Structures are given as structure tokens and as C-alpha cells.
């Protein structure tokens, strides 16, 4: 069953210290384009994240948003720059004595000054970080893939229905093609006899040669056979569990080319109308296929 390239998934996981939230959004893209946004201090897990994504999603734009919150402050180190605080106090005392003699400098004034208090997060256990993130990432990706499968089912249904419609139109062209040659023969014979005005005998051999030439020139058997082959391959792709978006796109291009050839070879009005209808359906199928993984 084919998959859509659009989907969304979200998951959370905590180990008592780290609380991860992962959101995955996938969009249409010709290739596999992955964008990951996460806290800078855990960038060392990026390659692991990409590896898991590629194992589950082979085509499309994948946007992954990872946020991390800590359950407590046990891994935060707080330091006070005492020399800097003294320097600020002397400067503030001097300023208040000169300008605001009734004011007093308090600790609240000091701690508001830049770089007096600095916080630094202690080193995390990288393995613990990854184990917690991995679970949230796997679940978010699974939710995304599940949504892509559901949408793929609807895409497959629509593509299949339109392709069956195209097949019926091709069958009508196939049935019509032999009649076109016969009609051409009768019209040509009538026209020649009209021009000769029954004064000369019609040369049946020359007429047969002309009809044979027309039949060969307008023969669309090869195009019809290839179209049926492409249609069968398309149905096989719809039942495949492998990514087939690019192959489907190629098949539609080939089908469109064969239909154009039929249109250029045939001068029959009915076949011409059917060709236009087939091309219209092929374009609708092509638009749907742009969203297939």
C-alpha cells in the first residue's frame, strides 16, 4: 500500500530527569530532505536522529522539532562573581552618595547587574539523554507514518479509480481504431469515384495501396500495448509496500507520451476526443502522485 508524503506525529517521554517532546511534520519533496531543530547542547544526538528517520521515511521533507525540559534543577550549577559584585557595589555607592544621598544600595540592586550570577548546566549522561529521546522520537515517527499510510490509502483509491477509467477509454480507442481504416477506405473510394464521375474505372490496386499506407501510418497498436503494460505496472505499484512515488511519476509521463502519439497519428474525431479525456485524467493522476512517497 502506498504512503502519502504528508503527515504529522507528536510524542512525549520522561525518565524522571529529562522531559522530551518531539513533533514530526512531513511534506511533499522530490527527495529526502530532513530538518532537525533541537537544543544546541544535545547536538551530539543529531546523527542518531537522522538514522532513525531514514529508517522510517524514505521520501519527502521531514521537519523534526525536539524540545527538552528538566524535571528538577539538580544538574544546574550556580556561581556568583563576588569580585564583580563588589565592584558594582562600590560604583553604586559612589553614585548614590553623589546623586541620591537618601538611597541605599541593596543586594537586589547588585544581583540585577550583568554577569554577577551565572548558571551553567552540568554535563548530562549522553546515553541517558539518548534513551529518553529515542523513545519519544520513535513514537512520534510511528504516528507520522500511520497518518501517511491512512492518507496513502485514500490516494491509492482515487488513483486506482481514475486509472480504471483511463483503461476503459483506451479500450474504446482500441475498438475504434480498425473502423477508422474501413471508414477511410469507403470515404476515399466515394471521393475518387465522384471525381472520376464514372468516366474512368477505379484502380482497385492503387486504392488498396493508399489504404494500406494510411493504415500503416495511423497504426496505434504499439502505443495501445504499451499503455496496457504501463497501466498494469501502475496497479502493481499501488499494491507495493516499497516507496514507488518516483516510479509512478515515470509511468504517468510514459503514458502521457503514448497518448500524445495516438493523438498525432489519428485524424479521427472520436479518437481525438477520447485522447483529450485521457490526458485530462492523466493530469489528475499526476497531481495525486506528487504526494506519494
Task: Give a brief outline of the structure.
By secondary structure, this protein is α+β, with helices and mostly antiparallel strands. The chain contains eight helices and six strands.
Question: What features would you describe in this structure?
Answer:
21% of the residues are buried. It is built from 8 helices and 6 strands; from the N terminus they run βββαββααβααααα. 61% of the residues lie in helices and 15% in strands. It has a 4-stranded mixed beta sheet. A two-stranded antiparallel ribbon has the order 5-6. The chain has helices at residues 46-56, 82-99, 107-111, 126-196, 204-217, 221-238, 245-265, 269-289, and strands at 7-14, 18-27, 32-37, 60-70, 76-80, 117-121. It folds into 3 domains: 7-73 and 123-148, Ribosomal Protein S5, domain 2 (2-Layer Sandwich), CATH 3.30.230; 77-121, no CATH class; 152-289, no CATH class. It is an alpha+beta fold.
Rg, rounded, reads 37 Å
User: Helices and strands: which structural class?
Assistant: alpha+beta
Shape: elongated
Major β-sheet profile: 4 strands, mixed
Amino acid at each position: 500500500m502506498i504512503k502519502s508524503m504528508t503527515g504529522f506525529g507528536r510524542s512525549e517521554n520522561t525518565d524522571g530527569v529529562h522531559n522530551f517532546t518531539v513533533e514530526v511534520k512531513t511534506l511533499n519533496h522530490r527527495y529526502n530532505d530532513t530538518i532537525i531543530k533541537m537544543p544546541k547542547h544535545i547536538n551530539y544526538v543529531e546523527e542518531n536522529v537522522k538514522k532513525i528517520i531514514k529508517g522510517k521515511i524514505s521520501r519527502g521533507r521531514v521537519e523534526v522539532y525536539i524540545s527538552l525540559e528538566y524535571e528538577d534543577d539538580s544538574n544546574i550549577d550556580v556561581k556568583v562573581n563576588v569580585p564583580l559584585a563588589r565592584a558594582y557595589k562600590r560604583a553604586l555607592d559612589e553614585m548614590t552618595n553623589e546623586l541620591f544621598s537618601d538611597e541605599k544600595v541593596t543586594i537586589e540592586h547588585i544581583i540585577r547587574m550583568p554577569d554577577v550570577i551565572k548558571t551553567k548546566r552540568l554535563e548530562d549522561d549522553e546515553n541517558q539523554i539518548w534513551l529518553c529521546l529515542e523513545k519519544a522520537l520513535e513514537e512520534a515517527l510511528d504516528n507520522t507514518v500511520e497518518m501517511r499510510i491512512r492518507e496513502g490509502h485514500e490516494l491509492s483509491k482515487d488513483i486506482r479509480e481514475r486509472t480504471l477509467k483511463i483503461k476503459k477509454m483506451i479500450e474504446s480507442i482500441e475498438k475504434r481504431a480498425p473502423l477508422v481504416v474501413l471508414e477511410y477506405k469507403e470515404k476515399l473510394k466515394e471521393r475518387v469515384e465522384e471525381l472520376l464521375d464514372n468516366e474512368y474505372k477505379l484502380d482497385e490496386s492503387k486504392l488498396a495501396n493508399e489504404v494500406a499506407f494510411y493504415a500503416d501510418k495511423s497504426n496505434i497498436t504499439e502505443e495501445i500495448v504499451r499503455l496496457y503494460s504501463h497501466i498494469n505496472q501502475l496497479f502493481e505499484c499501488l499494491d507495493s509496500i516499497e516507496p514507488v512515488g518516483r516510479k509512478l511519476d515515470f509511468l504517468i509521463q510514459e503514458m502521457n507520451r503514448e497518448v500524445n502519439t495516438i493523438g498525432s497519428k489519428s485524424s479521427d474525431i472520436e479518437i481525438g476526443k477520447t485522447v483529450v479525456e485521457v490526458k485530462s485524467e492523466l493530469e489528475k493522476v499526476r497531481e495525486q502522485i506528487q504526494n506519494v512517497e
